[in-house]
Amino acid sequence: MAMAYLAWRLARRSCPSSLQVTSFPVVQLHMNRTAMRASQKDFENSMNQVKLLKKDPGNEVKLKLYALYKQATEGPCNMPKPGVFDLINKAKWDAWNALGSLPKEAARQNYVDLVSSLSPSLESSSQVEPGTDRKSTGFETLVVTSEDGITKIMFNRPKKKNAINTEMYHEIMRALKAASKDDSIITVLTGNGDYYSSGNDLTNFTDIPPGGVEEKAKNNAVLLREFVGCFIDFPKPLIAVVNGPAVGISVTLLGLFDAVYASDRATEMLIFGKKLTAGEACAQGLVTEVFPDSTFQKEVWTRLKAFAKLPPNALRISKEVIRKREREKLHAVNAEECNVLQGRWLSDECTNAVVNFLSRKSKL
Ligand SMILES: CCCCCCCCCC/C=C\CC(=O)SCCNC(=O)CCNC(=O)[C@H](O)C(C)(C)COP(=O)(O)OP(=O)(O)OC[C@H]1O[C@@H](n2cnc3c(N)ncnc32)[C@H](O)[C@@H]1OP(=O)(O)O
């Protein structure tokens, strides 16, 4: 973690204005009424599409749809918690409650995204013009969509606060590689639910291979180096839309983004065991701009859509000019950090921290 922070400081030092340089001209746009209606219309279309589904999407998806619908129409869960034996209502309550204070607008968007991911047959009935809104399937832990020149990679483990498990590390790398080659202009990372991400999934440390913990630590270090390397080498403007609290590696990675927009609901950015509010992270240069949660999605996506209309080659070339001066150093710091981490993962301090977290429920 310390070294990732160093990478961030290094990036900022060697290019003090890098956030600004690739944070594009400020375009003052306001959500117009057409856009707001379209969003509500998409939501209504999606509700109709759900009724037309030919295949049962399964209980987990149905619960997600239920929760997002309730959140989008009524806001945060306001029902008393059902008793333990009332299994169905308890599952519904849990799903809704897990969305925390996710804004209605974001819930509506997530509902639309989820519905359009459910069946390829829906796409033909969708009113979206073919080719303007594409969803990549084949991801278990992400929802990846491409629309209006923006590829959106959304962490999609809201019940686990978007903790990054091994599968998600691999899928993020795959999604970034695909986004670097697709026809989108900018790429956005964001989280589904009330968290941006709670960082490394601590259960990653529990699956020990036959070679023991040393082999595990070594494999993790190799993978982590490749993972962070994908962010260092990503060629297009990369934007983080930090919709809620962010922890650990999800925070340290922010230094490698070109712009970071945070909701003021991201009250916790855990770094070095210290909590920063989004405003404090902004003052430190880790976040580009903070928005009130009530207007966060609207303001940020309006801005991003405007960025995506900027000349793509100029954006890429600007990023390359900046990044090439620091790329070598960033890779060197990344390699060093992964070596240090490989040792730290074998320490008693790390084992104790993981065991404490994983056993905390049994202590209650
Ligand atoms: C490339 C491949 C390499 C693979 C591995 C090595 C990579 C190493 C990367 C670098 C190393 C470290 C950097 C880090 O990211 S360290 C930070 C790790 N994160 C944490 O310590 C946060 C732990 N979580 C919490 O403290 C809390 O959950 C919370 C985020 C403050 C939220 O609290 P809450 O009370 O609101 O919600 P809670 O009930 O705790 O959580 C809901 C469910 O989500 C599960 N969960 C949350 N975070 C994690 C996590 N990080 N790992 C695993 N599981 C997590 C939690 O257990 C609950 O699950 P359940 O409902 O009990 O089933």
Looking at this protein, list some descriptive labels:
364 residues, alpha/beta, Acyl-CoA Binding Protein, 2 domains, seven-stranded mixed beta sheet, three-stranded mixed beta sheet, 15 helices, disordered N terminus, binds ligand LQQ7U7AH
Radius of gyration, CA atoms, in whole angstroms: 21 Å
**Span between termini:** 29 Å
In this entry the ligands are: ligand LQQ7U7AH
Kindly report the average pLDDT value. 82
Proportion of residues in extended strands: 5-15%
| Total domain modules | 2
| CATH architecture name of the largest domain | Alpha-Beta Complex
Summed up, what is this model?
This protein is of the alpha/beta class and 364 residues long. It contains 15 helices and ten strands.
Write a structural description.
The chain is globular. The chain is an alpha/beta fold. It folds into two domains: about 5-25 and about 150-360, 2-enoyl-CoA Hydratase, Chain A, domain 1, CATH 3.90.226; about 35-120, Acyl-CoA Binding Protein (Up-down Bundle). β8 (about 270) and β9 form a beta hairpin. α8 (about 165-180) packs parallel to α9 (about 210-235) and α9 (about 210-235) packs antiparallel against α13. The protein contains 15 helices and ten strands. A seven-stranded mixed sheet has the order 1-2-3-4-5-7-10, with helices on both faces. Strands 6-8-9 form a three-stranded mixed sheet. The protein is about 55% helix and about 10% strand. Residues about 1-35 and about 120-130 have low confidence and may be disordered. The protein has helices at about 1-15, 20, 35-50, 60-75, 85-95, 105-120, 120-125, 165-180, 210-235, 250, 280-285, 295-305, 310-345, 350-360, 360-364, and strands spanning about 135, 140-145, 150-155, 185-190, 240, 245, 260-265, 270, 275, 290. Ligand LQQ7U7AH binds near residues 166 and 201.
